[in-house]
Amino acid sequence: MAQAKKPHYLKAREAFVTFFEGEQVALAAGDLVVPDHPMVKGREELFTPWDGPRFSVEQATAAPGEKRGEPAKKPAAKKPAAPAEPAGDGG
To answer: For residues 23 and 17, what is the distance between their CA atoms, to the nearest angstrom?
Structure first.
């Protein structure tokens, strides 16, 4: 029988507070934790496997030696419209 794939994350089933490494830690329902995190050990019943969508965060600054894209060019200034000629009586 094929072994079940290990989930990328565990999702907290409900909000809870616990002690981890001498500190009080609060998790909200839906918080994600990696499965091999030491805080999970002995608290597995508080989590469910999660392989749902994950969102990446855009890097806001360039890494050392990395060049970012060129700055955006300002749009060309619009020329003012020519004044309309006064309507004459035609002559």
So the answer is: 10
How many C-beta neighbours within 10 Å does residue 47 have?
Answer: 21
| Spans of all domains in the chain | 9-49
Tell me the β-bridge partners of 16: 27
Buried/exposed 20-46: b ≥16 CB within 10 Å, e otherwise: eeeeeeebeeeeebeeeeebeeeeeeb
pTM of structure = 0.52
- pLDDT values of the chain reduced to their tens digit, one per residue, 91 residues: 556 677 789 999 999 999 989 999 999 999 999 999 998 999 999 999 988 776 666 677 877 877 777 665 666 677 777 777 766 665 5
- Which residues are within 8 A (CB) of 16 and not within 5 positions of it... i.e. 6 or more apart? 26, 27, 46
Report the candidate in 4, 1, 2, 33 with the shortest Cα–Cα distance to residue 16: 33
